[in-house]
Amino acid sequence: MLSRVYTNRVKGMALIALAVIAIAALVGAAVTALGSRQPDYGALRRAMVEDQIRARGIKDRAVLRAMAKVPRHEFVPTALRENAYEDHPLPIGDGQTISQPYIVALMTEALRIKRGDKVLEIGTGSGYQAAVLAELTPKIYTIEILPSLAKRAEATLKRLGYNSVRVRTGDGYKGWPQHAPFNAIIVTCAPDKVPQPLIDQLAEGGRMVIPVGPQDALGGQDLQLVEKHNGTVKVSSIAPVMFVPLVREREKP
Ligand code: SAH
């Protein structure tokens, strides 16, 4: 009799233990599922376009469409994916950064790209800006001085289907004379002054957007629009910005 009671009690305890294990497993599975669930990147991207870009005055429909389409999270390190659509730049390795989404849109809009235009980018970085440009015209040429970044950007662009973008490792200060002239040139690193080779490689009627000034410039560098008309060059100021410096080949970090 005593031993029967004892056995029943053991059985009861075993059942409770099993139940506890089962509940713990369920909770664990639920937590894992929640943790590994991808954020809705499309929704984050649409919010980015509305709240950060359209709200600040970017109107060009093609630019807004491109910003709403390019999967920015695919261009940032895996650990930062969930931060990809936030209102600031992010590190992409090798001491470099991907620009704030609004700055990408602002610079792209200033280029006034028409389909068929040939565009040169200096400072490929992650390849994100190149992908945004590729949504506007297939003829994109981009130069990155750090081989590791150039390789990674090229792979990312290929993986996402941006096959028409030509990526080259080299010093973008010198431009890409073999493919000049360019209807638009975008420089995403800051030289102290506009490189003459880039002015030379700008087509008649062409537009160049370029941050100018030292990295420690008080109040930021000057984002300039350089336009070429009848062979003369007109420079206007767009906004204060902060970019990594344009480094020359001999002073590579
Ligand atoms: N447009 C990039 C961000 C660029 S960050 C993006 O969308 O992710 C600036 C980049 O310019 C860095 O990757 C840096 O290595 C590169 N850079 C600096 N000096 C350069 C030069 N002389 N020629 C080409 N790239 C240069």
Textual characterization of the structure:
The protein has 253 residues and is an alpha/beta fold. It has a single domain, classed as Rossmann fold. It has helices at 2-36, 41-54, 61-69, 101-110, 128-134, 147-159, 196-200; strands spanning 90-93, 96-98, 118-122, 139-144, 165-169, 182-187, 202-212, 221-229, 232-241. It has a seven-stranded mixed β-sheet. A hairpin with a 2-residue loop joins strand 1 and strand 2 (96-98). The protein is elongated and about 100 Å long. The N and C termini lie far apart (84 Å). 38% of the residues are buried. The mean pLDDT is 90. Bound molecules: S-adenosyl-L-homocysteine.
What tags apply to this protein structure?
about 250 residues, alpha/beta, Rossmann fold, 7-stranded mixed β-sheet, two-stranded antiparallel ribbon, 7 helices, about 35% helix, about 25% strand, elongated, binds S-adenosyl-L-homocysteine
Unreliable spans are none
CATH classification, class level: Alpha Beta
Portion of residues within helices: 25-40%
Strand content: 15-25%
End-to-end Cα distance, whole Å, is: 84 Å
Bound molecules: S-adenosyl-L-homocysteine
The count of strands amounts to: 9
Supply the number of helical segments: 7
- Whole-number tally of structural domains: 1
Q: Give the structural class.
A: alpha/beta
The CATH architecture term is 3-Layer(aba) Sandwich
Cα gyration radius (Å) = 26 Å
In sequence order, what are the helices and strands, one letter per element? HHHEEHEHEHEEHEEE
What's the story with the biggest beta sheet?
A: 7 strands, mixed
